[in-house]
Fold this sequence. Notes:
Layout: E1 6-17, E2 24-35, E3 39-43, H1 50-58, E4 65-69, E5 79-82, H2 94-104, H3 109-122, H4 138-150, E6 156-160, H5 168-185, E7 188-193, H6 196-199, E8 204-209, E9 212-218
Parallel strand pairs: 3-7, 3-8, 5-6, 6-7
Antiparallel strand pairs: 1-2, 1-4, 8-9
Amino acid sequence: MSPADVLIDCQEAALTFGRGPNAVVAVHGAGLRIRAGDRLAIVGPSGSGKSSLLHLLAGLEQPTSGTVTWPGLAGPWDIGLVFQGDSLIPALDVAENTALPLVLTGTPDDRAREAALAALALVGAADLADRLPEEISGGQAQRVACARVLTQTPRVILADEPTGRLDHATGGRVLDALLTAAAETGAALVVTTHDPAIAARLTVRCTMRDGRLTSKDTDRGDTDPAHSLGDPS
Ligand SMILES: Nc1ncnc2c1ncn2[C@@H]1O[C@H](COP(=O)(O)OP(=O)(O)OP(=O)(O)O)[C@@H](O)[C@H]1O
Ligand SMILES: [Mg+2]
């Protein structure tokens, strides 16, 4: 197996916020490798460090110790990130927000809008196209954030609680759209979730507790510890 097969290599990466007595260790030495085609769920309670780990994988946070490298990726544009919190630009309508990554990379406006409307339809949000972010709900905004990633062809999709504010049926539809996009493009998909039903639809699940990746289970019967999740202990 060549090193390039590993898209993201996270080795003993830790992330501490603050210093001294107020320091919070959000992630303790996490070992995780993401390869093309991986379908990974990171499950854990609120505050367990799921977003922090995803931000390390995306390069949005520098590890306090350990390393995160991207041997199989050409650059940050190879990562499509669905943020957990609000990430829409208030002055742009939903279609413009969804089309923005395409417009920024040189796609003509009309083609970018067409792709945005198609992606919005996949997450059941086509009727929101002309609304401003302040005119939609949190769950709707979450769907728009997913649609924005679906307009792109990243090699890794990192989705932080993409269904967290959605009802079961809508959440299932959003996950369908992410899984389909990943299958069509060959992207790896990493999803953080509280929801066991969502986690069950990914191939590998790992659990985060108090900043530690504590366990892994897989549909493939894959016992190779180096495959996706390094030994976190
Ligand atoms: N910017 C920050 N500054 C200080 N502490 C932070 C910061 N971001 C996160 N934390 C702390 O790090 C820990 C992990 O937070 P994180 O957001 O990664 O958890 P999470 O598993 O994503 O939670 P949730 O399910 O609620 O989204 C928590 O104790 C949190 O309070
Ligand atoms: Mg989070």
